[in-house]
Design a protein that fits this description.
Layout: H1 4-17, E1 19-28, H2 37-57, E2 62-67, E3 72-78, H3 82-91, E4 94-95, E5 98-108, H4 112-118
Antiparallel strand pairs: 1-3, 1-5, 2-3, 4-5
Helix pairs in contact: 2-3
InterPro entries: Pop5/Rpp14/Rnp2-like, Rnp2-like_sf
GO molecular function, one term: ribonuclease P RNA binding
Keywords: tRNA processing
Length: about 120
């Protein structure tokens, strides 16, 4: 018979290794979209640092895709920290002094299921 402590540790390990994919959209005031992939990486860093400090940076969100024309992108993150990233993005109100809104559109277990909605190749 398996020890309950071992089961709990195994369950926790499986959760901590699970990656989910977050589909988001960046919009600036007046519905204009103008941001580069490199800038979006800096926005992720800034959002996590502002809301969660150095601890937030340790969650390491990975920008997998960003389309500067539509403002749509996909971020990979450990599912245990997805809510922290979602909160940080939602509360991000400006980029380079321009008012903006970052909306999380969907979260999936597989990136392929998001590719259809973002037209990612």
């Amino acid at each position: 018979m398996t020890n309950p402590v071992e089961i709990c540790a195994l369950h926790k390990k499986k959760r901590s290794d699970h990656i989910c994919y977050m589909d988001f959209q960046l919009k600036f005031e007046g519905d204009s979209v103008s941001s580069e992939e490199g800038k979006m990486r800096a926005v992720l860093y800034s959002a996590m640092m502002t809301l969660h400090g150095m601890v937030g940076l340790g969650h390491d969100p990975d920008l997998k895709y960003f389309d500067p024309d539509s403002g749509r992108g996909i971020i990979a993150i450990n599912s245990m920290y997805a809510s922290k990233l979602w909160t940080a993005l939602t509360l991000k109100g400006d980029v380079d002094g321009k008012k903006c809104c970052i909306t999380v559109l969907d979260i999936k277990d597989e990136m392929d299921s998001l590719k259809d909605t973002t037209q990612c190749v």
